Structure formats: C-alpha cells, structure tokens
C-alpha cells in the first residue's frame, strides 16, 4: 500500500513537471503562473506547491540530484580513488549512458535559462548549494575544516557548472544526441584534466 502511494505521488510529480515544461516553452517562464500549471495539470495550486515550493524548481525539477549528486559520488568513491577521479568517472559514465540529467534539452528549453533572470538566479543558487554540499562531504571525510576542502569543492563544482553551460550551448545549437554526448564527454575530459595538477591525488580515499 505504501509503495502504491509512493508511485502515485511520483506520477503526479512527473505529470506536473511535464505540463509545466510545455507551458514554459510555449508561453515563457515569467508569463506562466502556478495557477496556470495547476489548471492544465488537473490538480490544485496547493498540490503543485507541495511538490515544488518554488516555480523555478518546476523548471529545474532535478535540482536535488544536481545539488547532492557530486557529494554522494565523492562519499561513495572507491578505495584509493581521489575526489577528482570519482567525479570524472561518474560524469563520463553518464555521458556514455546519455543520462538526461546532463542537460540535453530542446533549443527552446535551453534558451529559457538565458532569457529569464529568475532562472539564472536559481541556477546560481543550485550550484552554490552543490559546492557547499561537496565541501561539507570533503570536510567530514578529512575530519577537519580548513581552506583546502573548500577550495577543492569550489574547483570541482566549478567544472560541473561549466559543463552545464556547455550542455545548454550544445542544446541551443540543436545538436543530435550522439554529437551532443560525444562533444560533452570531450569537454568533460578537458575540464577535469585542467584540475589534475592541483587535485589529482587530493582526498584519495
């Protein structure tokens, strides 16, 4: 019974998110209200805000994974694996699997981020939260606070941020799926390689 309830909740969340995405693309982010989305999805406005407290999170509906994913990857890295190596391995594996979270979207959806100040502000906040979560994980595993884990987190999260913008650029250009993920993988290898001199052995588990 509990599993059925959880499945229904997930289906409702996905439906709301899907309807919102279509409306944002058609009408614009600022022009679309929570009430509009609720009506189109056939739910109450309160139901929408229960799942998505902020309208921006209807757009960035996977923000929790973006915020916590890198910290989890680092926490679960293999013995002897550095934080840099773990994050690079995960990102390249996601490219190989054509993971949706890497940001291959329609050109119209990609342009919405550029055109909306609210979405750009929320995106900066998401990556700030990602950096903080990563720093906390590195601090916890080192057993001490200090400059090093925070600098490492800033650099590693910075790569994730740059690659998101690279994914948006490729989406806006209308690249097909194979070109998109092949190019994004190459960009990831280049970006992570730039951190090698400083972080190649940092936080090796």
Automatic annotation (TrEMBL):
Keywords: DNA-binding, Transcription, Transcription regulation. It comes from the Bacteria. Residues 10-70 form the HTH tetR-type domain. Residues 33-52 bind DNA. It holds the Pfam family TetR_N. This is TetR/AcrR family transcriptional regulator.
